[in-house]
Design a protein that fits this description.
With 381 residues, this protein is α/β, with parallel strands linked by helices. It folds into two domains: 2-251, Aldolase class I (TIM Barrel, Alpha-Beta Barrel), CATH 3.20.20.70; 300-379, Orthogonal Bundle (Arc Repressor Mutant, subunit A). It has helices at 34-50, 74-84, 106-114, 129-134, 141-153, 171-183, 201-204, 214-225, 245-251, 278-286, 300-311, 320-327, 329-340, 358-362, 364-372, 374-379; strands at residues 7-13, 59-66, 89-99, 119-125, 157-164, 188-193, 230-233, 236-238, 255-259, 264-267, 270-274, 292-297, 318-319, 347-350, 353-356. The strands form three sheets. Strands 7-8-6-5-4-3-2-1-9 form a nine-stranded mixed β-sheet, with helices on both faces. Strands 10-11-12 form a three-stranded antiparallel β-sheet, with no helix packed on it. The chain has a three-stranded antiparallel β-sheet with strand order 13-15-14. Helix 3 links the parallel strand 3 and strand 4. Helix 1 (34-50) packs parallel to helix 2, helix 6 (171-183) runs parallel beside helix 8 and helix 12 (320-327) crosses helix 13 (329-340). It starts with 6 loop residues before the first strand and ends with a helix.
Amino acid sequence: MENKRGVSLYVHVPFCRSKCPYCAFYSFRPQFQEMERWANCAAKELTTLSTTLPPRKKLTTVYFGGGTPSLLSCENWQVVLKAMESLPRDDTCEFTVEANPESLTLEKLRLWRAYGVNRISLGVQSLNDMELKTLARPHTASDALQALDMCIKQEVRVSADLMFALPGQTLRSWHNSLRTLVHAGIEHISIYQLTIEPESYWGRHTPQGLPDGYQMYRWAQYYLCRRGFCQYEIASFATYGQESRHNLAYWRRSDVYAVGPGAWGFVNGTRFAKIRDFSTWATAVEQGIDTLDYLENLRGAREASEAAVLALRTSEGIDFRAFAERYGNGYLSQIIARLRELPSQFLYWKGDGVALSARGMRVGNAIWSELIDLEDEAEHE
């Protein structure tokens, strides 16, 4: 566990062409010159970060997320990517940019590659045009396939995101989306069940015809694992060697620095967030004021239980020796005892650790809730 921890960076781009009805992430449609202002402020934050990184530390993963980072112009990207050069990166650094099919262009791909971007996370969501229309996505299935093909031809590693349990979605249409991606040559697929947040449009106007997502998730496990994919974490499948190292940085509780309005980070056991409002964040950056808006220090039982939950999101699971060294034998004993009470088919016990089985992944939330309950017990011993 400890020797796998690197230093990562997350950069939040808050802009979208339009707001999806299910989305509660901090994003909005940009107004005049807001993207230019964001680029200049993000560049300033990156330059400042380069002076505060621990000595001899190099970034092992970089992730530009959003929002829709691909909505930025090449001129905006030039400003930010030049600032990125001030940050030391490991020779094998995984540098990912999220993109949407309608705003991904060959010019942007080539620019990103010139600055070291080597992975694209593409928001496909579905390869059924009716489902995309329901989601109010501004692209078609054909657009998505063309964007994927462009990435592959440019020799950029590409991951595709899909959503399931959508209004009116069937198991057949879900299978068709999975199968088409596999046949297109995609080597990393992340799947997310539709979650309707209270703050979203659908949170206020819940759509009808939502199917049960359990069978769709189970089918993805069955189908993808028979097409050469390994489920390396709760929502992601990859062929050998194509796992997202940035994803794993979160589950391993590695240090993740953050840049941009609303960006979340985690350093030395402290979780933090930047100012969420764009204008307030930008003004603070321009005036040289601290942009931190939230801090949470996790210690003791809370830290140990969270670490266990995050580890069980992955196929690696909990390494007993590494966990005990980092959080203590007492917390490890409590976690093992609670897991022993669960049905055996949900867990895979190894000599030196434990992980969720394929069945366990399907009921992960219920299992994790059992571990979160350990907090009060530990604190009152």
